[in-house]
Design brief:
Elements lengths: L1 H11 L3 E4 L4 E4 L1 H21 L2 H11 L4 H12 L13
Antiparallel strand pairs: 1-2
Length: 91
């Protein structure tokens, strides 16, 4: 969920662009810094205020995977490219 929230906020703020023809992404560095700061502020304010209703609304609004992202994730899965790091600890 956290990754989806970040993706959607960054997309909304223009922190990256997507080439529709091939489905690749390009980071817009200046906008990325602004987006990271804005998202951090949003989360810290929600947490600091104990705003459960605001946090719930934020998750409902920004926590959905859109069709383009789902298609890209499906393409990665079909190519057996991992999208998350999994740490398996032994004894």
């Amino acid at each position: 969920m956290a990754n989806t929230l970040r993706f959607n906020v960054f997309e909304q703020m223009g922190a990256f662009s997507r080439d529709e023809a091939v489905g690749t992404y390009r980071v817009e560095f200046e906008r990325m810094q602004e987006a990271v700061n804005a998202l951090s502020a949003k989360i810290l304010i929600l947490q600091g205020d104990g705003d459960y209703a605001g946090a719930t609304q934020f998750v409902e609004q920004m926590g959905k995977i859109g069709p383009a992202l789902q298609a890209d994730l499906d393409r990665l899965e079909a190519a057996a490219i991992p999208v998350d790091v999994v740490f398996e600890q032994g004894l």
